[in-house]
Design brief:
By secondary structure, the chain is of the alpha/beta class. It has 2 domains: 246 residues, Type I PLP-dependent aspartate aminotransferase-like (Major domain) (Aspartate Aminotransferase, domain 2), CATH 3.40.640; 126 residues, Aspartate Aminotransferase, domain 1, CATH 3.90.1150.10. The protein is 41% helix and 14% strand. The chain has 13 helices and 11 strands. The strands form 2 sheets. A 7-stranded mixed sheet has the order 1-7-6-5-4-2-3, with helices on both faces. β2, α5 and β3 form a beta-alpha-beta unit. α12 crosses α13.
Length: 380
């Protein structure tokens, strides 16, 4: 499909005249669809993944979203889910079986690791590497079935060599999947680099308003068809038509929002680099050497999620900084209008001594003033 991303986000696949000229696609808030005769019903039920029978399978509002996401990722097909973990769980539990091994590349979303830890009880093994291609190749086993990547990752913003991993995996008959939530399909298209599956949490930038939870997986028709038949239909994490409508609404402004997230984040990073209390900043725009060249090759833009390390980072100091902020709210997730700040460090000293900032869409001057408030709090 030779259509610009901006058109996919706004008008592609939408037939306004089929809905009385309505500009906004309707919400098909129905659990079932009826048929003119039994023969039509019988044929449709046999191919529920191709026909509207019951909204646990296909629904017109959800399908419109799936068509747009597939096109944005340059994939053949997409399946949407009730949450990002719904998409991840369906993918892993469809593709993996007893005796299989999964290699995680880069820091991975915590619940994904928890799921794999649970699957150890079913004979599925995993381990993690944050190294380069040599280390990844050494970590592979004869029973490795899947390489699962986060790039950039959502805490340390690590970048992996997607094309290199895809080529290595294909040579060995191993599937590859990536959590592409940080970059969105606008700033990174892993399938064009050879990755098999791209997974998204729709709750973040794609939804964009902190009012919807959803997930999606995009890839070749054959793989998505398997995930639909097993992981989607049998686990039942179905995206509701109303939530699909909310993500469709979010897509209409996604190109504009991502440009502003990028502009605000880069201005915040420039400010942070001048603060003596900041020891290190984690963001793909600030990589160097081979990692920088890789990021520039794979990413066409930068999202607003970053993390930083304070000099002498103890829990009390990090808490004092975050608690002093007024514009940056304390909360999980990211990708909405609002700016957020959290730390994975715990009062007992466990965890990583980072401050993660989700830079939102507020006036950048307000954000810089707020961060100054945080630094003033740890200087006294």
């Amino acid at each position: 499909m030779n259509v610009r991303d901006s058109e996919i986000c706004t008008h592609a696949f939408e037939d306004h005249q089929a809905h009385h000229g309505a500009m906004i696609p309707p919400i098909y808030q129905t659990s079932l669809f009826t048929f003119p005769d039994l023969e039509t019903f019988s044929h449709s039920q046999l191919k529920e993944r191709e026909h509207f029978v019951y909204s646990r399978g296909l629904n017109p509002t959800v399908k419109l979203l799936e068509d747009k996401l597939a096109a944005l990722e340059r994939g053949e097909h997409c399946k949407a889910f009730a949450s990002g973990m719904g998409a991840i769980s369906a993918t892993l539990m469809t593709l993996l079986g007893q005796g299989d091994h999964v290699l995680l590349v880069n820091q991975t979303y915590g619940p994904t690791v928890e799921l794999l830890e649970h699957l150890r009880g079913f004979g599925i093994e995993y381990h993690t590497t944050a190294g380069g291609m040599d280390e990844i190749e050494r970590a592979l086993r004869p029973e490795t079935r899947l390489i699962y990547i986060e790039s950039p990752s959502s805490m340390l913003m690590q970048v992996a060599d997607l094309r290199g991993i895809a080529e290595l995996a294909r040579e060995r008959g191993i599937l590859t999947a990536i959590d592409n939530t940080w970059a969105t399909p606008l700033f990174q298209k892993p399938l064009t680099l050879g990755i098999d599956l791209a997974i998204h949490t729709l709750s973040k930038y794609l939804g964009g308003h902190s009012d919807v939870v959803g997930g999606a997986v995009v890839g070749p028709h054959a793989l998505i068809d398997r995930i639909f038949e097993r992981g989607h239909q049998l686990l039942g994490a179905t995206l509701s038509p109303h939530n699909a409508f909310l993500v469709l609404r979010g897509l209409r402004t996604l190109p504009i929002r991502m440009q502003q997230h990028q502009a605000n984040a880069l201005r915040v990073i420039d400010y942070l680099e001048r603060q003596p209390e900041v020891a290190r900043i984690h963001h793909p725009s600030r990589l160097s050497g081979d990692a920088q060249r890789l990021a520039r090759h794979q990413l066409s833009g930068y999202a607003g999620l970053l993390s930083l390390e304070l000099a002498a980072p103890d829990y009390a100091r990090i808490a004092r900084f975050i608690d002093s902020l007024r514009i940056f709210k304390i909360g999980v997730s990211w990708g909405g209008y609002e700016s957020l700040a959290i730390s994975p460090l715990r009062p007992d000293g466990s965890g990583v001594p980072l401050i993660r900032l989700a830079v939102g869409l507020e006036d950048s001057e307000l954000l810089l003033e707020d961060l100054q408030r945080g630094f003033n709090a740890i200087r006294t």
